[in-house]
Design a protein that fits this description.
This protein is of the alpha/beta class and 221 residues long. The chain is built from eight helices and eight strands, in the order βαβαβαβαββαβαβαα. An eight-stranded parallel beta sheet has the order 1-8-7-6-5-4-3-2. It binds D-xylitol-5-phosphate (DX5) and zinc ion.
């Protein structure tokens, strides 16, 4: 069954502890942490200090999405902070195999993300090595954007490659997902669903998490 990884990007940072409780009460599977450096993406969020603080207040697996220009320099910091899954961007690194090998050497899951304009084919020679592919279904940098429909083709394509070669990576999809389109994303082959604004800009985040979880559950029946 697919997993739900709510992003805290659109949550109330002045009360992060209770925002995370809402995710736990709704039975979230992971927590998605969006790290932005103002360079790779036109926005700045937080670094390893906050990841470490979140790790102290929850047992949910930390799904850290690094939207930063030089991820190699910070891999160790984000792993020591408690990340369980560490995803870097294909567009941000030159020696992808080296970076992936380094992340995996710490015994955690290594993911690679691709922007909307980056073809799936650029990952062909690394798919065997990685634990997760994060398909960006919006241009990274901000929560609350509209889902880019073309992303569905990329998910199908990844699923096909996964089945053909018997690979193990999970397909995670990030950006513009809500109850009205989650089914089509699951149908395309998503294993992990990220949702930010849909949850934290709703009137009832616990209920929204539960609704998304229900749709995921019903889909797998
Ligand atoms: C965007 C981030 C996403 C974002 C998704 O750069 O990577 O994780 O928070 O948020 P929504 O669900 O609001 O599109
Ligand atoms: Zn993200």
């Amino acid at each position: 069954m697919a997993l739900l990884s709510p992003s805290i990007l659109s949550s109330d940072f002045s009360d992060l502890k209770s925002q995370i409780r809402l995710l736990e009460l709704g039975n979230s599977d992971w927590i998605h942490l969006d790290v932005m450096d103002g360079n790779f993406v036109p926005n700045i969020t937080f670094g390893p200090i906050l990841v470490e603080a979140i790790n102290r207040i929850t047992n949910l697996p930390l799904d850290t999405h690094l939207m930063i220009s030089k991820p190699d320099d910070f891999i160790e910091d984000f792993i020591k902070a408690g990340s369980d899954i560490l995803t870097i961007h294909q567009e941000a690194v030159i020696h992808l195999h080296r970076t992936i090998t380094k992340i995996k050497s710490f015994g955690i899951k290594a993911g690679v993300s691709i922007n909307p304009a980056t073809p799936v084919s650029t990952l062909k020679d690394i798919l065997e090595e990685i634990d997760l592919v994060l398909v960006m279904s919006v241009n990274p940098g901000f929560g609350g954007q509209k889902f880019i429909q073309h992303s569905l083709k990329k998910i199908y394509e990844l699923k096909e490659m996964k089945e053909k070669y018997n690979y193990n990576f999970l397909i995670e999809v990030d950006g513009g997902i809500d109850t009205d389109n989650v089914k089509s994303i699951l149908e395309a082959g998503a294993d992990v669903i990220v949702a930010g604004a849909a949850i934290f800009k709703s009137n009832n985040p616990i209920q929204k998490v539960a609704e998304l979880k229900n749709l995921i559950q019903n889909f797998s029946k």
